[in-house]
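Reading a protein record of the kind used here takes only a little practice. The record below shows the convention in full.

——
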Amino acid sequence: MNSTKPAHPHFFTGNFAPIHEEHHLPALEVTGDIPKELSGALYRVGPNPQYAPRDNNYHWFSGDGMLHAFYIEEGQVSYRNRWARTPKWELENHAGQALFGSFGNPATSAPSALGKNSGTANTNVVWHGGRLFALEESHQPFELDSRTLESKGHQSFGGRVNARCTAHPKVDAETGELHFFAYSPEGPGTPGMLYGVMDENCEVTRLQSFDAPYASMAHDFMLTRRHVLFPIMPLTTSVERAMRGKPLLAWETDKRTHVGVLGRGQPAETLRWFEAEACHVFHVMNAWDDGNTIVAYVMQSDAAPGLPDAEGRPGDPERMAARLCRWTFDLAGDSPGFQREYLDDLVAEFPRIDDRYAGLRNRYGFYTCHASARARDDSESILYDSLACFDFATSQRKIYTLPAGDVVSEPVFVPRSTEAGEGDGWLLAVAWREQENRSDLLILDAMNVSAGPLAIARLPHRIPFGFHGNWRANT
């Protein structure tokens, strides 16, 4: 095992540290009452590196993906976790050490790894077309068995998705289509973009290409019933910079933020670019059409959280703190600018909605946030201690804060039934219990989060901090 210390040692301490056991637990201890209508599986994924990194520029984002699944049925919960056995994982497992530099950096990768697939499948997990995929935006979707989490490999969907694919595809709740995109499909540091549509059977029905203003890590995008929007922000990628020992990913504050707006079904040549002063968004909550206006709810910061400038210098933590913000685009006007307005003062991330309202105007939004005094003093931290439900009709929020030291994951909304009103259902989230160094699954009433969990399923071990998850209902 390579013993080089990473530049960010906290990524290997506490609950950032990987676990090395794969479990199958048929019945977790449950306190409280799990709603009988709640039946399905919650899948989550996050970085869980097999081996210590090779280079001093290691970043948490680049660890091997590990899947965690909670199967809920008739008031009981079972659990399973498995590594995503990507080609990278298999190659390093055979070698018994890390072979790839962070983000596949060729300057710090072993000669035997150069030109090989460095995918980690560590960012998001989605259910589409009766299939389960782990996603990471620099490679193709990676398929797994929905019950065993057995790895099935990267998928090209008939050769149509042969390079990158976003970790944040959007499902049109009305048509069932999956919309996706890719940045730099020709490789890191290139400004090209791809946009595609996949039907309910995982057949790619549309694929378009265009150039962004510059090569950027475009993590998320926006979909309305009539438009698709592509935010391009000054979190740039440069192989040339990386080969000089500087960061592959870096924040360049002298560049402007651009957002490309494309009518759904229209040619890429009709794309219209809006722009604003440099700002950053990792995650979009939702977007919708309002006449000749597009409105979006995003988590905006002044600089990209946790990433350095082009010289490798750390950024200002206060500028990296994201907050709920509304973006408004006037399609009828001639101005290239767009409006931005913060809606909440709490530092927050991982926004979610009732996905049946994706692309439509939503009243409720859910997210993790810093609500306690301790958390607010550490505003740039991604270790959120609270869950929030925000009512856009009243601008009021309800909050549930965990005990001191505990950390909560992104909440996933599950509707009570297909006919239930917006927000009528539950939030599912994973909490790390600092004092016990283990994790719980929390189930909360989405419209009454302040009351705390309805039920808690207890794990005997911890789930390392991760990124995203999604729900698959039993049918």
Residues 87-95 form the longest helix (9 residues). The longest strand covers residues 280-290. Helices lie at 87-95, 239-243, 317-320, 373-376.
